[in-house]
Amino acid sequence: MIVEAAISKAGAKYGTDFQKIVLVGDAIWDVRTARQLGLPFVGVGSGEEAALLRNAGANAVVENFLNYEYCIECFEGAEIPKPLHQR
Q: How far apart are CA 61 and CA 64, in angstroms?
């Protein structure tokens, strides 16, 4: 899987003592991938796209990365998306 390969490569280059790994994505399959891998998730989207990400299980969605403080807040509070039947 692409995400697992990226984490592995980052670990090989920078070490494996990351404080937190957050998957960031703009599609429902990104939410599903985060859930399957047990990774916290932050969605990127606005309007209907943001609603779809939230409905799929994203607890944090940013419209863009222009508001630094809000983005950091979202990354720090990011959670693993819960299965739809547990929300």
A: 9
Domain holding 7, by residue range, is 2-86
* Alpha-helix runs per DSSP H in 15-83: 28-37, 47-56, 68-77
- Model confidence, pTM: 0.88
d(CA 87, CA 84): 6
pLDDT for residue 60: 95
Distances (CA, A) of 71 to 66, 68, 75, 78: 8, 5, 6, 10
Domains identified in the chain, total number: 1
Judged by DSSP in three states, 41 sits in strand
